[in-house]
Amino acid sequence: MSDAERAERVLGLLEAASLVHDDMVVGLSGFSYQNPPMALVRAIIRRRVKGLTIVSGPTSGIETDLLIGSGAVRRVVTAGVAFERVAAIAPAFRLAAERGTLEVWECDECIWHVALKAAAWGVPYLLWRGGVGSSLPELNPDLAEIDVEGVRCLRVPPVRPDIVFLHAAEADAYGNVRVAPEAYLGRFFAERSLALACRGPVIVSVERIVPNEEVLESPERTILKGALVVEVPWGAHPGGVSGRTVPDLDHYREYAAAAEARRKGDPVAYQRYLERHVYGLEQHEDYVRTIGIERLEPLRMAGA
Amino acid sequence: MSVSGDPPDPRLLACVVARELRDGEVVAFGLHAENLLRAAYVAQRLHAPNLVIRHGLRAERSAEIGPAAWTDDRASLSRGRVEYFEAHDAILDVANPGSPQRFCDVFVVGGMQIDREGSTNLIGIKGPDGRMAVRGPGSIGTTSIGTLARHVILFSPEHSARRFVERVDYVSVPGWRRRAAAGLGGGPALCVTSLAVMDFEEGRMRLRSVHPHASVEEVHGRTGFELLVPPRVPVTEPPTRAEIEALEAIAPPGPRESAGEDGA
Amino acid sequence: MSAWTTLESAVASIPDGALLGLGGFQLNRAPMALVMEIARQGKRRLRVVSVPNALPLDLLTGAGLVAEAEFGFLGFQYEGGFVVAPNVRRAVERGTIAWKERDVYEIVQGLRAAAHGLPFLPAPGAEGSGYARVNRTPTVKDPGTGEEILVATAIRPEVTLLHAQEADREGNLAIADPYADDLLARASGRVIATAERIVERIERPTIPAGRVATLTEAPLGAFPTSCHGHYGWSKAHLPTYLALASEGRTGDYVDRYLRAGRPAFLAAVAREADGPEAGRETSGPERPAAVDRLVVGMARAIDDGDVVTTGVASALPMLAVALAKATHAPRAIYINCVGAVDPPLAAAAWSSVDPRLLDGCRDRVALPELFDIARQGRIDLMYFGAAQADAEGCLNLTCIGDYARPKVKLPGPAGSSAMRPFVRKVVVLLPRHSTKTLVPRVDFATSVPSRRNEATIVVTDLAILRLQGGRLRLVSRHPGIATETLGAATGFRLEGDLETTTAEPTDAEREALRRLDPGGIRHRLA
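^ inputs. structure came back:
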């Protein structure tokens, strides 16, 4: 099939967000402060969906916390939710878990990966030796501790997202997603793991769409194919984009302070944050204007 | 003597951990553990040139300059000595005991709580009613790696009775007694804190050395359980000339993030 | 970091009786230099496991060095046709080695279990196949559901032998056509590798240096199998080997070619190594009209947009896919088992496992992932071969006669018994419709129908059949084939639609076939 015959796979942001419905299992990819699909998350929150199960990782941060704080989430499947040193415990996550309005599928990063693999491999369960002797089986009824030929293991069931969202540096119109040439902490994290486990579409927001020829010139940078693509510059903000932008830590601190205040009983700052950055905006361009390009541009990495 | 227990010499903890890292090993720890990264670089420069640092998906064999903060656009000059895991699920390698490419030999890890047998807790703290009152961040990568790695070094930048408890409320990484109960054997080798270095005897934490600025009484007072104390407790050796030079050589120029809690 | 060493030292380190894993796939990139050195050194009582890659196993077996072998497919397609590895076949038929045949999926899951430090992993799906019974495949009660499901016990080779296109000084390997080598490496105690050549630095190794224990530079290290990007299958040497092996004269082969060492071997065969362009012909009797109907019949089973896959020894089905995409199903997605998604299928080839299919393909999957994709219900159609098909739709690729000491050892399941239960449309190619191929009951049920299948179709040179109500029934007779002829050629009572004639290839289909296969290679493949 020639390029011309291949279907283009570009969506608008609102169109992508409209694929999420109540009670869906939504996969989100992110690592540390890198690549949270924030523009997509904000668009999903604006739709006021409820009862989501968020499968985020390998580490979860502000994308998960904001969804929880906005009331969209019933359950998280994640190894932990934190903003590194800005907040050792993500505040909206902490509040909802302590109140009992959020179910936590307790696990660690390895078990999280094994559960996605069980889905990708189409098997009824997988076994894993880590977690034995910990509180995970006690807290998570899906993880049964069993004895397998004298070896104690956990039985890990499949976790299968209905839809997956991630953010990356670039993609072409045919759904070939790629990373920047320099990627300090790593090239792929859980993008492929989530995509292989997903029973539905994989949607990637990217800083920019590039021509197919560019992708073909450096194929080693392609991490995923066949994705649906949404062009959203600054679509990970306040997260950084690996090899392209650094995170806006002041914004993280502002969000964390508001969420922490809400946790302690004063919801005003958090409500204001949601109004200003989520509900009060219709388009991602409005968000960019609200943050201000003079604040965003300095986040670009040199040479990126 | 500071109230929080922070060491007057911030370089001491990096040196103490560096001394425990062996040449040819692979050491892993959480992201943004700058002090541990510092410790690993010092070890590489001084006595462990073939130490491999597992940081994110990177495996670094040596560095020409200090820890390039990942938020920085400074690329590490050690590019020639860095390998990457292909994807994050490569951490599942930690379970392959026969593999010559192990994820790590030694894992440096902490927690909201650490107990007498060396269990850690990142899950939560119980309230008076026995239910979870404080939700912790979650075990992140610690449970499986802490269980399946060959050696575990516990690390805490502060030492208080609130953190060092008789029994953790929830277990992220099982210590000696829980490992035995799970049929695993072994346990954490060491615990390094802002006040002291501890090891384990028959699965119970024991004082090995006290840092120069602290005292045995202070360590006692700040530990929430009965710590085993041998008859003679040496003073932790302060940073040596060579260690100080190594630290200065790797120190990154420019402002860093505000000093917060280091360690996983 | 790996140690650079000689072939001799590398192989000397392999103990007698070792469990050996072999890298490569179907006459592609087999670690032949290492295996030949093993034969020269006379390592004994070896136990060998591989994903389908029968040539090195055949050499070791013929040299009398194998005590136990585990395999999923013993056949390979080469210029001269299709052959079941002669030494292994003889050893199985005579009972001179201990052996176990299992679906490749079970081997994959066994390797995955070893890679995760586990005693086994679940491998359910092929419960109805005869293998579960003859291998006494263990089942374990799933603690979650209480169901007994088949499991694959961990396979942990002590040593895996690999040949890579490139290695760097550190010992990182770059492999252009990985197949299942990464999984083998992760499941093994150590990897002994050869590399076609050394390069400066490999940024993204296929197999990192940390896994490679010893490394040797060995040009032509895969010869006479292919080494993608360097050389194809050896037109001359494969038949040379096969001629001796078929006659039980592997000892002569070893003496003549291997005894004098590697440099002498290379000198003797250097002329025989063909360039990358070689290997595009085959030979065999021609039945043009019949073959075209087979290809067209298979092509028509594809609906536009289907995800279609083929396994080993599937050159005609691959041509059928190309035909379908060129005519009524341009949006069909084809996954070839070398790991190529939508390879360019411009011209027909006699091999469906040519690594050149990886060049210019749209995407790649690893060989083990094919099974996962099927198990997720993502394969709409797969083509299967068979030596026998029976009235109930069971297929036999295993043996004629008794499994333990067969009269005729057939090539084996490859991945068919594990894939078939999960594929939506099962299309079986039976090139010669006769009472020997369409039998009342197969000698061995390699694969069986599953309720997950939506359709099971059998395409023969005389008719199209379909599984309906648990029985194969006639859908259409090919033009010119009388009902009586059909009846006499079928080993069971064939009922169904006696009236409908299969539509002949249309002009568009003929034209497309002419374009796709101008040389008529397809006519020599059945």
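The CA atoms of residues 146 and 265 of chain C lie 58 Å apart. Residues 120-153 of chain C form one domain.
thumbs up if we can close this ticket
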